[in-house]
Design goal:
single chain, about 600 residues, mainly beta, Methylamine Dehydrogenase, Chain H, Immunoglobulin-like, 2 domains, eleven-stranded mixed sheet, five-stranded antiparallel sheet, 4 helices
């Protein structure tokens, strides 16, 4: 083991403006047509015990269009929320921000951490410290009272994807290596004295990456990862279990040792539950997009979230889809605040080259005490300041452009509906084709990311294409064209396509069923299935999907580079008609060849 060291840092904090016209305070931005009992000009409630505004649970946008994807959300209360995320190599370092009743503060680690890198997770078991972990074995302990941080020498350069502890006396950071490196899986024990890597059972495979840790107590800690890997710490020893089928386990959380949930999957959603027995039971909802985040409340209500806006809620032991949120992103994390409201965090996560368009959404009744305003940008710092104590916060720092959130929440009731109607949401093998109007996505959903289409095309066709790197320009495929194999930031490879089709008399957005698979030499090598995929309108009776990942059944692209592949694509629309197309492509890996 390497000898741990801790270095003290001083953190510069940038405060965000508390603008009622941006985001955060839902009473200020809610339209009277949506919540009749709320005034558009209602001021934040000074009484923290009286913060519920009349209205049923709905989706609310707190942040969107951030330059960095949000990878984790966690907090102590609705006005004590932490988010962390991607480092876009734009001179601002990784996204680390703290939301309070007065707005959002941006935590600046650049002077002490000039190399930077994504920060993947945050935790704070006590009242004084918050811990952040991320790429290259980086870990930080932030002192809330003094505004300073310590860098923790973890003794590894592995990416640390998760951290959890029962107290500040002992935390566990977990991770490993993904393409192009391999193994070994990594667990780091963090104490006030320092950190050290842990020797794991010999049965744990060297090429497994670990993703998250959670426990009900200091002597009952679980860690999950690839290939069905489950590790357990009983206070003295680690044990190792491999779940049947070796599923990819991404995140776990629980309310107690007899109420735990694990989510993940390779190309479809996976939900496993652990009750009083030691066995994990499969509660997967069927063919939906794969899941990244989960959280279990003390009352047993649970949430799971994943790609392309997918969010599930468990009530009374049953999982059901929540209505589509007004902003469709790839969700990576879920947190439930003490009042039972859910928060989801994400962005564009399918490619490590993207990791942008960060968003933070809240699901619950309208509130007047959530962190208002945007998360601010940081001033450009070309050369790290060796004396951060001397820094003066510039009150004239430009803030990121923020879209008027009124437009996003004006149709919130139409998007989310009443939580009491969850029984009406179809979670069986067939989508509910009678509720397309109830699931309409507002006109503002990502419409500005699509180029106008040729509306003269026949209304029954479907064409296959791909967006550019910015996710804006759509180009139709031709037979035999090359398509890039994309390496995911947490391992895994996929290709991305988009579908453009006509549907007469449709609504703003159609909940369609998508079934896609990639075939080489007659054998399926990857797929994507979703029973309720949102496809926004982009022209007169014309629709186009968001980028869809066809995820391969492997973590290595090399065996398929140069191969001729056939894409089999079909969609079932709300009127039960089907659009289907088959196209051949050539798989390439130009990005990694250039590197």
């Amino acid at each position: 083991m390497l000898k741990p060291t801790i270095t003290t840092l001083t953190i510069a904090v940038v405060l965000g403006a508390c603008s009622d016209s941006t985001s955060g305070n839902q009473a200020d931005i809610a339209d009277a047509d949506v919540v009749d009992d709320v005034s558009d000009t209602a001021a934040p409630d000074a009484d923290p015990t009286d913060t519920v505004v009349p209205g049923q649970p709905s989706w609310w946008v707190n942040q969107q269009d951030l330059s960095s994807a949000v990878l984790a959300v966690w907090g102590k209360s609705p006005t004590d929320i932490w988010v962390v995320g991607a480092d876009k190599d734009d001179g601002q370092g990784p996204l680390i921000a703290h939301g309070t009743s007065t707005g959002w503060e941006r935590i600046d680690l650049r002077a002490q951490d000039p190399a930077g890198g994504h920060v993947w997770w945050a935790a704070g078991p006590g009242d004084q410290f918050v811990y952040f972990v991320g790429e290259n074995g980086r870990a930080f302990r932030y002192d809330r009272s003094s505004g300073t941080a310590e860098t923790i020498d973890t003794g590894t350069d592995a990416t640390l994807y998760g951290v959890w502890g029962a107290s500040d006396s002992e935390l566990w950071a977990v991770g490993g290596y993904v393409f192009p490196d391999t193994g070994p899986p990594t667990v780091v024990r963090i104490t006030p004295e320092g950190a050290s890597t842990v020797t794991l059972p010999a049965s744990v495979a060297d090429d497994v990456t670990l993703f998250k840790a959670w426990g009900s107590a200091a002597d009952n800690v679980y860690v999950v990862g690839e290939k069905g890997t489950v590790l357990h710490w009983d206070g003295s020893d680690w044990s190792h279990t491999v779940l049947d089928g070796e599923p990819r386990l991404v995140t776990l959380h629980g309310a107690a040792s007899d109420d735990m949930v694990v989510v993940g999957g390779t190309s479809q959603a996976l939900i496993l539950e652990r009750g009083a027995s030691d066995d994990w039971s499969d509660a997967s909802p069927g063919p939906y997009s794969l899941l990244n985040g989960t959280y279990v409340s003390s009352d047993g209500t649970a949430y799971a979230a994943g790609l392309i806006g997918t969010v599930f809620q468990r009530e009374d032991g049953e999982w059901a889809t929540l209505p589509l949120p007004p902003v469709i992103k790839d969700w990576h994390a879920v947190w439930v605040d003490p009042r039972g409201d859910a928060w989801v965090a994400g962005g564009r996560l399918l490619s490590a080259a993207q990791f942008d368009q960060g968003a933070l959404l809240h699901y619950g009744p309208p509130r007047d005490d959530l962190p208002p305003g945007p998360i601010p940008s940081l001033p450009t710092m070309s050369n790290p300041d060796p004396d951060p104590d001397a820094d003066v916060i510039d009150s004239e720092v430009d803030e990121p452009e923020v879209v008027d959130m009124d437009a996003d929440v004006n149709e919130a009731d139409e998007v989310s509906g009443d939580v009491d109607t969850m029984d009406d949401v179809d979670t069986g093998p067939e989508p509910d084709t009678d509720t397309s109007d109830d699931n309409d996505v507002p006109d503002t959903v990502e419409d500005d990311t699509f180029e106008p289409v040729d509306t003269s095309l026949p209304p029954v066709d479907m064409v296959v294409g791909q967006f550019d790197a910015a996710g804006v320009v759509f180009t139709e495929f031709v037979s035999g064209q090359e398509i890039e194999i994309i390496q995911g930031p947490q391992g895994g490879v996929h290709i991305e396509i988009a579908l453009d089709y006509g549907f007469p008399g449709g609504a703003t957005s159609l909940p369609t069923e998508v079934n896609l698979f990639t075939e080489i030499d007659g054998q399926a090598v990857g797929d994507f299935v979703s029973l309720a995929y949102p496809t926004p309108m982009v022209g007169v009776e014309r629709y186009r999907t968001f980028p869809i990942p066809l995820i391969f059944y492997t973590d290595l692209a090399d065996p398929y580079v140069g191969a001729n592949a056939v894409l089999n694509l079909s969609m079932t629309l709300p009127d039960n008609t089907t659009r289907a197309v088959m196209i051949d492509v050539v798989l390439v890996d130009n990005v990694n060849e250039q590197e």
